[in-house]
Amino acid sequence: MLTPDHIALQDSVAKFIAREITPHIDEWEAAEIFPAHDLFKKLGSAGFLGVNKPVEFGGMGLDYSYEIAFCEAIGAIGSGGVGMAIAVQCDMATPALARFGSDELREQFLKPTIAGDYVVCLGVSESGAGSDVASLKTTARRDGDDYVINGAKMWITNGTQADWMCLLANTGGDDVHRNKSMICLPLRENGKLRAGITMNKIRKVGMWSSDTAQVFFDDVRVPQRYRVGEEGKGFTYQMKQFQEERLSGATRRVTALTNVINETIEYTRQRIAFGKPILDNQVVHFRMAELKTEVEMLRSLIYRAAQIHMDDGDMTELASMAKLKAGRLCREVTDSCLQYWGGMGFTWDNSVSRAWRDLRLISIGGGADEIMLTIICKHMGILPKRG
């Protein structure tokens, strides 16, 4: 799928990562946060935050295959948290706004986000409604020309630094699939949290350099004109947005897993045990070949899904398969490779143990493996009848 133009984009991203990200990763990991505004402004100035977004709002206007190429490139970042934070900006919190938002709304929120002037977060998950999006409890009640928002969101990537949130909230009615709306919610005024908004930072097993927050809303007002598209269509918009999020997550892992395999090959080639390199043991080099084959099969599945998406088809089934397979491979590859690093693999400050911690998230975030299996079964027509 990749042409010389795609490769040129990836080369530019690789140079940016080497210059602006890699030298700081250990510092950001230790601090459990990275300077999102500073980094995103640099990414925006380079054009990387709007690869497939409309030109009139600052994007490159390229087709979706270039966004896939970009996702592959940022998968090489040696900290999963930084790559995930960038993906929130590009593939998780802005696709629905780009597709369904009014020109006024896209001018106000999408354009500065593509430029890197704004940091965005996605407000969907709650402590009682992660993968079960239909069960979320946060409300946005009409009051004059405003919505008044009450509730809380959980596991919000970029939360402690974000300028605005792509919020999903209940706006009325009993049908859980038609009572939700998507709202662009400003989180800060003059650099400080708006009245009625509080948040707590969450510590995580991995993805350390990405800040994650629990966010609370107490009578927070936002104009109704900040709603994306039609009222009551938010669940539908989010389900469509999820597909790009899930394929982005799988795509980034292809590069990350390839790097883990390559680094393990290099380590086991140099590490001598019982008079020969560990890599010379057939069980080791055969295992590397098996894992690389699995990763390349995942890449092919991703490219198929992306092509369907570019052809205006429904990539839901293939995107769900790709995310499911990526999650399974993240556990299999990192665990197998860590084993061959021996005692060094169980130390904290090396690339394979960081990947082991960071990459575990994809089987949980953005829809757990079990949700992906349910979606796939639904497309296969094999779900049992309800009642």
UniProtKB/TrEMBL annotation:
UniProt-listed InterPro entries: Acyl-CoA_dehydrogenase (IPR050741), Acyl-CoA_DH_CS (IPR006089), Acyl-CoA_Oxase/DH_mid-dom (IPR006091), Acyl-CoA_Oxase/DH_mid-dom_sf (IPR046373), AcylCo_DH-like_C (IPR036250), AcylCo_DH/oxidase_C (IPR009075), AcylCoA_DH/ox_N (IPR013786), AcylCoA_DH/ox_N_sf (IPR037069)
Co-factor(s): FAD
Sequence ranges assigned to domain Acyl-CoA oxidase/dehydrogenase middle in this UniProt record: 121-220
Residue span(s) of domain Acyl-CoA dehydrogenase/oxidase C-terminal: 232-380
Record's GO cellular component terms: cytoplasm
Family: Belongs to the acyl-CoA dehydrogenase family.
Protein known as: Acyl-CoA dehydrogenase family protein
Native organism: Ramlibacter albus
